[in-house]
Amino acid sequence: MAQVIEDQSRPASAWEVTAAPPDERRGVRRRGRIGLYLALGFVAALALIGALAPILAPYDPIKQDLGNAIASASAQHPLGTDEFGRDVLSRLIWGTRPALLGVLVAIVTACVIGLPWGLIAGYAGGTVDLVLMRIADALLVLPGLVIALAITTALGANLVNAMLAVGIVFSPILARVLRSGVLTVRDREYVVVTRMYGLPPRHRMLFHVLPNAMAPALIQITLLTGITFLAQAALGFLGIGVQPPSPSWGDSLSAAYKFIIVDPAAVLAPGVVIVLTVLAVYRIGDAVRDRLEIPA
Amino acid sequence: MTSTLVKRLLAIIPTVVVATLLVFSLEQITPGGAAEAAAGPTATPAQIAALKAQMGLNDPLPVQYGKWLWNLAHLQFGQSVINRQDVGTEITQRLPVTVELTVLALLVALVVGIPLGILSAARRQTRFDAAVRGGSGLGLAVPEWLLAMLAVDVFALQLGWLPPTGFTPLADNVGANLQGMILPALALGSGAAAIVTRQTRGAMIEVLDSPFVRTAWALGIPRREIYFRFALKNALISVVTVVGLIAGALLGVAILIERVFVIPGMGSMLVDGVGQKDFPVMQGVTVVFVAIVILINLAVDLSYAALDPRIRR
Questions:
Q1: What does pTM read for this prediction?
Q2: Mean pLDDT highest for which of A24-28, A168-172, B215-219?
Q3: Of A214, A245, A281, B196, which sits with the fewest C-beta atoms within 10 Å of its C-beta?
Q4: Is the interface score ipTM higher than 0.90?
Q5: Going from the N-terminus, what domains does chain B have, and what CATH number goes with each?
Q6: Beta bridge partners of B86
């Protein structure tokens, strides 16, 4: 379970849990920067691996070799083969692409829906704010994974639709956070001055309010990125994301798990890749938080 | 207390409206509509039209929504479009399984988390505390369903202590049922245990550092009494909050755990329904999940009021 929360008094959605107590946060901050550099390096490496997948992957990720199925690690296949004799390493390498793409789809969706939602609610105030935030609260109460699955049913089960659904589920979180940011800057002098200059409201919202209200939303986005990787792997494991025979991390994991009795070690490789990615993204999120956090 | 109850009950209304509208409208936005999904890929346009009329899809949308809500209120979830089974009947068979798993996981979280949190707070800045914090950090980072697979590998396959997967109905054999639920409940409760540990520790420390506890020390009140009567009682309020959040989250994660351990609960029903575009199944399961989460939240809010007199206004 991951950690996000903006307002402890409110019920949050399924994947949200309370943040660590403040004393532990400070502990993270004091620890060296090595972890951060490792995390950044890991994510950069993933991007590179995804981009260079055709060159790096030793085998075709979807070419079957049934005579050599569920093979253990060997010199030819460093991570063994799956039930159809496909090279696991190659599938993991190619799986980097949908992993990164899926997270991008989810985060962009969450931003496209959530940011205008929060900006308008915070800026307009009054009844508009009340209605918009009631809707956000109602969605936040609902169990996230269940709602994401429900939305995926309607859109059709594939990677982009599943991640669109995840983005939709996360959007009210961003809306809430951005709204609270907007409320704190809305009546500051520099915003009031633009009103005196007669600048149109849209200009004021986009160029004066939004940039100054974004810090908490940015922190939230980095946290959501980590959760999105997990959500994506989970949906892939359920067979809702990337459709076979295309490679993905979640699919590699569920394929390995099917034969855990034959080859118990096979689940380790995809599992470790997923966990390391999530840890790296969280570490980067922590750094972003430290940099942007407004001192209380 | 009565006004708190009324206020909370009124606050449920927007949630119910948004949730039911969302679940209902999903049927409308699906490409081709629910009738086409139900008829299957080989259906002729005439068959689809007939099915549409039969499913009442030609009525105006508000009428359809009203009928749907009316049926939900009477626990009529309709038939699965795939196997023609009554969705309500299937839910009544599967819901107890998921509830059992979730409750056991919650128990794991509380039984592990609260004592660890108390000890960790009492021995702040010691090696024990550091180990607990490290362990709970790991518990938060490793997703439950991955841990579940590792648990199957280690405890079922390597050590052979417990069955790897499989499910015995509670009514058939209580012992076998519980034996099969140990690994799933431990795995599902792992993340929650980490959260409860952290929350208990944080809340305990906050109370232990407060002036009234310092005064209690100064008065010579025994250690045990300070920890349990003063600190724990106050700390538990914030633990109840997270327990509410956790219970809802566990229900969601249970979907994945059921998949790992091949447990025939609501989660596997939902996942199958999603894969087959089976709208009545998806809607029925989602509505039941949502209803449970709403009820848990209500219970949590009311229990605050019972625990903390300051909240009763």
A1: 0.80
A2: A168-172
A3: A245
A4: no
A5: 95-275 (1.10.3720.10)
A6: B79
